[in-house]
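Example (one chain per record):
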Amino acid sequence: MHKNLLSKYSLQFDIIIMYCIFVFQPMIQVASKYERRVDTRSYDDKKKLFEGGLDTFLAEISEKTWKSKYETFTKRGK
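Predicted structure:
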């Protein structure tokens, strides 16, 4: 009976650990030989960059900067 309880507990513990691993993915330090900085993005973020997500990422950044600069331009006096 003791063995059954331990096996049941270990299964519950494994499920909790697996849930935490999938929900809270660790940040992986990825370094390139051409860059001195260590990249601390998650694995999914890096994977999206290699799948063509870099174009959309750069487009989002340029759109945000354009909007912020446009707002400051329209707010200034004539």
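Caption: The CA atoms of residues 58 and 64 lie 10 Å apart.
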